[in-house]
Amino acid sequence: MRIGRRPLTPLEAGVYVSLVAIFVTVFATRMLSYMEAAERAMMEVTVTRLMSAGSVRRAYGVLRGQADDATAWTKRNPFELAGFPPPNFSGEIDPLQPKPLERGSWAFDPARGELIYLPRLHSGLETSDPDGALRFRVEISGMRYMLVPTPTYRWQ
């Protein structure tokens, strides 16, 4: 009778290494999909908060009797209107000195009047934008302040 552990054969070691590699691959794939879903949810929450803040600001102005021009609202930075830029807001894009937008950050293009989000993880994103960026344009409908995607996208 032998007490103790015998050394692994090369076949056993190969099987164990293969099993660990499969588990690590499945785990990493799942984690990336969860991280992408979290990023998409955070982007959608930010857009919803911006629309709510814009609608409240418009309604407050009307209640105070301040007449405003709806077309002027469509050219303003939504984060400036809302008063809460997120930590990943890069600011306004300068058309004279373009610099690349970092992945996972927001920016505002004053020339086009668009809010831009460049996702960090985008394997489930379908958009016609060549950079893979999500672009939103402000539209005013009565008292509603809306951020409409241009072009449309689908993010699963």
Describe this protein with a few key phrases.
five-stranded mixed beta sheet; 22% strand; elongated; 3 helices; 156 residues
The average pLDDT score comes to 87
Any idea what the shape is?
A: elongated
Q: By helix and strand content, what is the structural category?
A: alpha+beta
What number of domains?
A: 1
Helix coverage percent: 40-55%
Structure description:
With 156 residues, the protein is an alpha+beta fold. It has one domain. Helix content is 41%, strand content 22%. The strands form 2 sheets. It has a 5-stranded mixed beta sheet with strand order 1-2-3-5-6. Strands 4-7 form a two-stranded antiparallel sheet. A hairpin with a 2-residue loop joins strand 5 and strand 6. It is elongated, with a radius of gyration of 24 Å.
Q: Short summary of the structure?
A:
By secondary structure, the chain is α+β, with helices and mostly antiparallel strands.
